[in-house]
Amino acid sequence: MLRPEIKRKRQNMTNLAPVLAPVLAPVRPRWNWFLAPLLALALMAVSGAANAKPAPDSFADLANKLLPSVVNISTTQVIEGRPGMELPKLPPGSPFEDFFKEFFDRNQPEQRSRRATSLGSGFIVGAKGYVVTNNHVIQDADEITVILHDNTRLKAELVGRDQKTDIAVLKVKPKSKSKLSAVTFGDSDSARVGDWIMAIGNPFGLGGTVTAGIISARGRDINAGPYDDFIQTDASINRGNSGGPMFNLKGRVIGINTAILSPSGGSVGIGFAIPSSVASPVIKQLVKHGQVRRGWLGVHIQAVTEEIAETLGLKEATGALVASVIPDGPAEKAKMKAGDVILKFDGKDVSKMRRLPRMVADTKVGRSVDIEVWRDNKKVMLKAKVEELGETPAEVAARTPGSRKGSESTIDALGLRLSSITPKLKKKYSLGKDVKGVVVTKVTESGPAAEKGIRPGDVIVEISQQEVAEPADIAKKVAEAEKAGRKSVLLLLEGQGGLRFVAIRIAKG
After folding, report:
1. Of these residues, 166, 228, 229, 473, which one is catalytic?
2. Active-site residue among 69, 236, 242, 277?
3. Choice between 13 and 350, residue whose per-residue pLDDT is larger
4. Nearest CA among 221, 257, 231 for reference residue 242
5. b/e sequence 107-137, b meaning 16+ C-beta within 10 Å
6. Residues ≥6 apart with Cβ < 8 Å to 391
7. pTM higher than 0.85
8. 388 three-state secondary structure
């Protein structure tokens, strides 16, 4: 039995026979058996080289076609109050207390609201005016304006957003439908490391800017969220590019430019994009339902190391080790136990632990799936009915004003002193009335946070794409990252320059 590749080569040689006949005619017949295969292989090599994709001479035609589909996004947020003088700390009962209070009350500047603006990128999908961008571009915005390539400004309404993947969908109503030029999604799974890509966005508010590069890596986990699967590129991505599209050479969107890794805040050739295979299903749900429904299995998992695999009798370190099973969850109902190693989910191999959360999340809620686990040195088949992923207590608390009392804490691993937001701190740092998160009150000199330019008054909105409401939330996430062997955590900060992601290393104690 011949292997498929040998069959194809023989077939190719047979197809080349008419081409070789004139070449071999003058040669004595007894040498044909030797020369024919050699000449056939030579012609096949030349043909293969001719069919290889060359580097593009120019991106001009592609850019000219796609620029009208990319938009700039301007957001405005009304922030109440402005800095004022603080009453100095005096001993209780001091005779100067009333004097200073009267003086400061008389000379305190009038509290006025101000409008903070930020810029980002997006792109048009479909013919109904839908615009895709990053959630952090429009988060907490009071007004959102979409600016088309011809500088037409359109008011946008928020259709839905998903914090876990950092995706948001807007909708605009143009005066003329002909002004909207939509793009389509491509297959990011077929994109390879080394493929050419082109990015278009609004870096530093300069307007439509085209950059190009290659795919540097696939499947990057930058601790941004539970479903990290980023495409890494060396194309220049800067602040303001967030939410813009990454195109392949066919002009299809294969990624949404989302984050950069940079000690200076500018591009150093390491940018990250959400692959279209992750973004497309999320966008469809946001358009249809305004929110994303994800599957939930009800387990806490960890990676299978070589040592664990050897201990459990596995031939290789693969799958996801169940650390604990949540009571009354789908896994417990399916008789799953702590110590099981999930090898297959719904017929798909769980090659790495971090693949499982996305596989479960992408499963339709209410569907029953087969799960293959490794237990007591043998494979066991289970069947679980996937339920809907709900909100965590931290997420609920973060959106419930006044649900937690003020607290302070020092996170030595980050070099930060943090506090929950109080009226006093709102006044001190001129924070918005509806601001949510944890405020930085002190930064350790030469610490990890100081290296990234974090300053007192900055507000940590999220860590690892999980909303926070008090310092304990951040301490917990840092501890989890340290336990998982991660060297850094990703913060979403709100400061004077607007929202930004900062990857901050975890200092070892």
Report:
1. 166
2. 242
3. 350
4. 257
5. eeeeeeeeebebbbbbbbbeeebbbbbbbbb
6. none
7. no
8. strand
CA atoms of 60 and 237, how far apart (whole Å) = 19
Condensed to tens digits (0 to 9), the pLDDT of residues 427-468 reads 888 888 788 899 999 998 888 898 888 999 999 988 877 888
CB 342 within 8 A of CB 371: yes
**269-290 burial code (b ≥16 CB/10 A, e <16):** ebbbbbbbbbbbebbebbbeee
b or e along 451-465 (b: 16 or more beta carbons within 10 Å of the residue's beta carbon)?
Answer: ebbbeebbbbbbbbb
Q: Which CATH superfamily does the domain covering 394-505 fall into?
A: PDZ domain (2.30.42.10)
Bridge partners of residue 368, in order along the sequence: 385
Give dist(CA 42, CA 199) in Å, integer: 39
Give the pLDDT confidence of 409-431 residue by residue, as tens digits: 888 889 999 998 988 888 888 88
Cα separation, 337 vs 298, whole angstroms:
11
Q: What share of the chain is helix, strand, coil (3-state, %, to 5)?
A: 25, 30, 40
**Catalytic residue (choose from 118, 136, 420, 464):** 136
What's the CATH code, domain 297-388?
2.30.42.10
| Predicted confidence (pLDDT) per residue in 253-292, tens digit | 999 999 998 887 788 999 999 999 999 999 999 999 899 9
Q: What is the pLDDT of residue 405?
A: 42
| Winning range, highest mean pLDDT, from 319-323, 371-375, 415-419, 446-450 | 371-375
The HSE-up count of residue 70 (CA atoms within 13 Å, CB side) is 31
Q: Is 278 helix (H, G, I), strand (E, B) or coil?
A: helix
Read off the pLDDT of each residue in 318-342 and give the average, rounded to a whole number.
93
Indicate if 242 belongs to the active site: yes
Q: Which residue has the tokens 């040498």?
A: 31
- Answer for the pair 407, 471: CB distance below 8 angstroms, yes or no: yes
Residue 159 burial by Cβ neighbours in a 10 Å radius (0-12, 13-18, 19+)? buried
Which residues in the chain are classed under CATH 2.30.42.10? 297-388, 394-505
Report d(CA 459, CA 79) in Å as an integer: 14
CA–CA distance, 22 with 24 (Å, rounded to integer): 6
Count CA atoms closer than 13 A to 275's CA, side-chain side.
Answer: 21
CA pair distance 245, 199, nearest whole angstrom = 6
What local confidence, expressed as pLDDT, does residue 434 receive? 80
Please give the Cα distance from 63 to 386 (Å, whole number): 43
Only one residue has tokens 């969107």, namely 253
Q: Which residue has the higher pLDDT, 390 or 189?
A: 189
Q: How far apart are CA 436 and CA 421, in angstroms?
A: 7
DSSP secondary structure of 457-504: T-EEEEETTEE-SSHHHHHHHHHHHHHTT-SEEEEEEEETTEEEEEEE
Class of 62-86+100-293 in CATH? mainly beta
Read off the tokens for 269. 């050739």
